[in-house]
């Protein structure tokens, strides 16, 4: 759902965010700001807390401490206002496998309260944009992993959110689908959409992100443009940065 | 549009989704409805002769045939079991939703929190009507006859739906709180047993001391007695008030519980 962006309001503002599962701390005082209309890539090893971060910012999980504002609204106190501005593609598939691809998109369009004809048109448009026309009227259960992933993302875009969370959007995709997805992210950016993504692939962050944050041990251990991070670790690639910085953290 | 209008619209969208599921997975509905039909046959033909002979005189329809008398006593009980069986399957469906990640998607949408649950509840009502029609048809084929007037039938259907609404919300809450599909299929087990400890299959006052007291006072007894009275064309009296009060109270508490559990349910 589109909401007028207040100029100057960051898309995401996080200060001192802490979170834990039981007595195991996951996030230990995290600060970050994502300006509207940019791509932020959150990088980190398995278990670093990337998904936890996305779940907090998308109102699925309450934080223990600190504040998080998304699209200018507090994620806890104004969850519904946040939900009106965001679209979320989680790490794990969130499609209805008993419905067809088209029906999944229609479901999202109906829940976004699009008028009937517009809903049908939007579903058709997204099916072709994600190369799912041929499978449109087959049950999603019969889709391949990559097709499910694309349908999942298409469902997120139905309501034209201004801020999109993508949790490891290209994990399990072949190189070609990965490039297609990068193209989708670039198109979203061209439309002024803000994208917050998590990834294991450093190349992906390098390709897409305006800002990269490296999450390890519950804190951001480095943050900057891909070029700044490479300079920081004195390495050629973000891989060097990743290994240098997350390694440091382990030897602490 | 107002919040209320949106809530209704979102619930309608969700019912459509759930009904599609039922159509694409018809074996579930068939299994759910087959169970009470088997109970009806079992209780009529295997236990019916003995049970009917044991019914106090005023409870039989005085047909002179114990089996027919017991079928008459039993039919409302089987209708109640049908409603419970449908509700129980709803616990499994919502738990399945919760483990498949789609619930997380719904929870990030600006829709009424209750809409996905209301979708399940209303779809369960459609299944309930279907189940009640099938079970009644089988009962009629076996020789069940009712003296109910139009008002009596309306009362019977109303009682069944109201009870269905209450146990469905209970099952939705149990299904969400249980955390896995396996646990969700076991959680409502007591609901299937509870009618046996009511006046469903034998009169409550035929049970020993504390059991009889429990049977007398648990929610299924006024519901079944109301149903029986409606179908027999007699007035249900205070049982109807108890039935309505129980159902409204259970619906309200379980609705709040289910919506809360839905807010917390996590992709497992
Ligand atoms: N439901 C949960 N209960 C208990 N601990 C959890 C739960 N979810 C996550 N954790 C723990 O929190 C930590 C962070 O998990 P999270 O899923 O956020 O990591 P991640 O960075 O997304 O990892 P990955 O790259 O493997 O997806 C991990 O140590 C994980 O074991
Ligand atoms: Mg993750």
Automatic annotation (TrEMBL), chain A:
It comes from the Bacteria. It is a peripheral membrane protein. Residues 12-242 form the ABC transporter domain. It is found in: Cell membrane. Keywords: Antibiotic resistance, ATP-binding, Nucleotide-binding, Transport. Its main location: membrane. One of its GO terms (molecular function) is ATP binding. PANTHER family: ABC TRANSPORTER ATP-BINDING PROTEIN (PTHR42711), DOXORUBICIN RESISTANCE ATP-BINDING PROTEIN DRRA (PTHR42711:SF19). This is ATP-binding cassette domain-containing protein.
UniProtKB/TrEMBL annotation, chain B:
It is found in: Cell membrane; Membrane. InterPro entries: ABC2_TM, ABC2_TM_bact-type, ABC_2_transport, Nod_factor_ABC_transporter. It comes from the Bacteria. The chain crosses the membrane at residues 25-50, 70-95, 116-144, 150-175, 187-204, 240-259. This is Transport permease protein. Its main location: membrane. Residues 27-265 form the ABC transmembrane type-2 domain. It is a multi-pass membrane protein. Keywords: Antibiotic resistance, Cell membrane, Membrane, Transmembrane, Transmembrane helix, Transport. Pfam families: ABC2_membrane (PF01061). Coiled coil: none annotated. Belongs to the ABC-2 integral membrane protein family.
């Amino acid at each position: 759902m589109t909401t007028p962006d207040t100029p100057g309001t960051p898309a995401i503002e996080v200060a001192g965010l802490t979170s834990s599962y039981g007595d195991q701390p996951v996030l230990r005082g995290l600060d970050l700001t994502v300006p509207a209309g940019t791509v932020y890539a959150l990088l980190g090893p398995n278990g670093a807390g990337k998904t936890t971060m996305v779940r907090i910012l998308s109102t699925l999980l309450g934080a223990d401490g600190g504040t998080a504002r998304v699209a200018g609204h507090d994620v806890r106190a104004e969850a519904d206002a946040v939900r009106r501005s965001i679209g979320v593609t989680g790490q794990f598939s969130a499609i209805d496998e008993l419905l067809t691809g088209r029906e999944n998109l229609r479901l999202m369009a109906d829940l976004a309260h699009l008028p009937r004809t517009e809903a049908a048109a939007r579903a058709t448009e997204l099916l072709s944009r994600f190369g799912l026309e041929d499978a449109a009227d087959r049950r999603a259960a019969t889709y391949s992993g990559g097709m499910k992933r694309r349908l999942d993302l298409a469902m997120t875009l139905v309501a034209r959110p201004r801020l999109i969370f993508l949790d490891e959007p290209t994990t399990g995709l072949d190189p070609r689908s990965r490039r297609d997805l990068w193209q989708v992210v670039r198109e979203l950016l061209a439309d002024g959409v803000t994208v917050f993504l998590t990834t294991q692939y450093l190349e992906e962050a390098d390709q897409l992100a305006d800002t990269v944050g490296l999450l390890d041990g519950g804190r951001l251990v480095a943050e900057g443009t891909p070029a700044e991070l490479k300079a920081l670790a004195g390495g050629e690639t973000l891989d060097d940065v990743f290994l240098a910085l997350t390694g440091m953290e382990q030897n602490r | 549009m107002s919040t209320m209008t949106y809530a209704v619209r979102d619930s309608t969208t969700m019912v459509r989704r759930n009904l599609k599921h039922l159509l694409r997975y018809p074996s579930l509905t068939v299994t759910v409805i087959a169970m009470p039909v088997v109970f009806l046959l079992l209780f009529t033909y295997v236990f019916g002769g003995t049970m009917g002979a044991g019914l106090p005189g005023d409870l039989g329809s005085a047909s002179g045939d114990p089996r027919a008398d017991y079928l008459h006593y039993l039919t409302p009980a089987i209708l109640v079991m049908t409603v419970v069986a449908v509700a129980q399957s709803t616990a499994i469906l919502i738990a399945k939703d919760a483990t498949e990640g789609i619930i997380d998607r719904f929870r990030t949408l600006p829709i009424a929190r209750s809409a996905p649950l209301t979708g399940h509840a209303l779809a369960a009502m459609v299944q309930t009507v279907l189940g009640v029609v099938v079970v009644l048809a089988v009962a009629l084929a076996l020789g069940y006859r009712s003296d109910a007037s139009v008002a009596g039938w309306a009362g019977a259907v109303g009682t069944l739906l109201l009870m269905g609404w209450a146990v469905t919300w209970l099952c939705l809450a149990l299904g969400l709180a249980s955390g896995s599909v396996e646990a969700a299929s076991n959680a409502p087990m007591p609901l299937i047993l509870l009618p046996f400890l009511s006046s469903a299959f034998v009169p409550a006052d035929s049970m020993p001391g504390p059991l009889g007291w429990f049977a007398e006072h648990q929610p299924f007894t006024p519901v079944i007695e109301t149903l029986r009275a409606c179908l027999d064309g007699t007035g249900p009296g205070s049982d109807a008030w108890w039935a309505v009060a129980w159902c409204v109270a259970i619906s309200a508490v379980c609705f709040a519980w289910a919506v809360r559990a839905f807010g917390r349910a996590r992709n497992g």
